[in-house]
Each structure stands twice: as structure tokens, then as C-alpha cells.
Amino acid sequence: MFRSMIVAFALLALPAAALANQCPQMMAEIDAALPSANLSEADRAKVVELRAKGEQEHQAGNHDASEAALEEAKSLLGI
Q1: Do residues 33 and 79 make contact, with C-beta atoms less than 8 angstroms apart?
Q2: N or C: which end of the chain has fewer CB within 10 A?
Q3: How far is CA 28 from CA 3, 10, 55, in A?
Q4: Residue 13 carries which DSSP code?
């Protein structure tokens, strides 16, 4: 019985951990693309703002909002 509970908990925890790990990967992609991106100053500022918001939301545990901000930043970067 105890073993079944551990397995069930692990199965529930793994998807959350996988999603949480997606945010840092997205931030790394943005960080890698930003220096060579051909953007207007306004778009560059927006990407930096969205990147910071994504990191803040990630640290707060709000991964849906983090991913939304980071996806928007990636879209502006064309990645």
C-alpha cells in the first residue's frame, strides 16, 4: 500500500517538475538569441521585459504565466 502511494505521488510530481524545467530552457534560448537579434530598440526592450517577467513568474511558481511571457519574447525574437 505504501509503495503504491509513493508511485502515485511520483507520477503526479513528475509532470509538474518537467514543466518547471521548461522555463529555464526557454530563458536560455532567449538569452542566446538576444545579442545577435535584429530588433528595433522598442522590440528589444519588450523582449528584455518579457524575459524578466518570465523569470519572476517562474521563481514565484506560476509556470503558466512564465511560459506565456517567454513564448511572447521568443515570438518577437523569431525563435
Answers
A1: yes
A2: N
A3: 37, 27, 11
A4: H
All three cell numbers of 27, joined, read 530563458
Cell numbers for 11: 507520477
**C-alpha distances out from residue 70 to 9, 20, 32, 58, 75, Å:** 29, 13, 13, 10, 9
pLDDT at residue 70, rounded to an integer: 98
For 6-52, write each residue's pLDDT tens digit. 655 555 655 554 545 799 999 999 999 999 999 999 999 999 999 99
Q: Please state, in angstroms and rounded to a whole number, the distance separating the CA atoms of residues 72 and 56.
A: 15
Angstrom distance (rounded) from CA 10 to CA 77:
36
Cβ contact 29:79 at 8 Å: yes
